[in-house]
Design goal:
3 helices, two-stranded antiparallel ribbon, Arc Repressor Mutant, subunit A, 27% strand, 3-stranded antiparallel β-sheet, alpha+beta
Amino acid sequence: MGRGEIHGREKTGEISQKYSDEEYLDAVREHEPAGTSEVAEAVGVERQSADYRLRKLEEKDRVESKMVGNSLVWMVKP
């Protein structure tokens, strides 16, 4: 398996995640405001995997994003 994030399937058919939400949140905190590539490198996943998980965290209201110039950056919500 490469550096991607999908780790395996649980008995429920859900894909388990190799890295926890907290690991992503820690990476965002470390680089805040954090670019997707910075988070990906800190966690150890491809940029596309980090983008997917960050968007899921945004849906859960754990992070927020905003455009700075041509870049999307992420911040942990208080």
